[in-house]
Specification:
This protein is of the alpha/beta class. It is built from five helices and twelve strands. It has helices at about 65-75, 110-125, 140-150, 215-230, 260-270, and strands spanning about 10-15, 25-30, 35-40, 50-55, 60, 80-85, 95, 100-105, 135-140, 175-180, 205-210, 235-240. The strands form three sheets. It has a seven-stranded mixed β-sheet, with helices on both faces. The chain is globular. The model has no long low-confidence stretch (mean pLDDT about 95).
Length: about 280
Amino acid sequence: MPDPLPTIKPEYITKSAETVAGKLWYAVWDVSQPTITIYLPKTKNTGVAVIVFPGGGFHGLAIDLEGTEICQWLASQGITGILLKYRVPNSGPNWNDDCKCHVQPKAPTALEDAQRALGLVRLNAAAWHINPNKIGVIGFSAGGYMVADISTHFKTRAYSLIDAADKESCRPDFAIALYPGHMRMEDKSFVLNPNIHFTKETPPTFLLQAEDDPVDTVNYSLLYYIGLKTAGVPAEMHLYAQGGHGFGLRRTKSPITEWPKLVEKWLDTIGIISK
């Protein structure tokens, strides 16, 4: 792994106190050993691969709700799902009460793990039956911030090169962010996080958001969209009146849970898959 940090606590898993769509979900904490887990297509292989970034505020990872369940859906669509268990906590921007701002960690290990994962997938694309030009990312909440982070930090690795994987491009070919977090710097200002610099090289992006999100990520998504459009990046955003936060793939009464169909149509529209 890049920039290994001393293991202070053993990794552990907890069960949620609340349910999503009538089901409990699980979170993994104190991740010091990043991993990728590959979910092979269950139908005809499209050659497309998507690396999945679960959310959790950079404190933990919603490993099934926004991880394994997403990979299983991707596999059902003929897409290779790749679950990235990235290092937490303190691996991405976290809110600091002293400065009233999001503070970047000394070692951005979440970004490092994302860059490393993209490189590993591209290096092994032929062996894993993946088209190296059709590798995307999807993230939820804090994982949505990681989508923006990797979509804007791909020219230079955030760590010293390790092997051949780090000589491969870590630019995603497409990006999907659902209720992304950490996208603005100040608590009450409508200003994009200065760590994110969208350019024309940022990949085409799909955004999904609920207006009633209690985490207030609606403003984060709007900033994300405006940043993409200002840079001339092809972007599609879906804003629903209801849906809340942290629903993942689980179906509820809210229309927003139809989002997988929207993503499938979008991937067809941008020429990644053909229906």
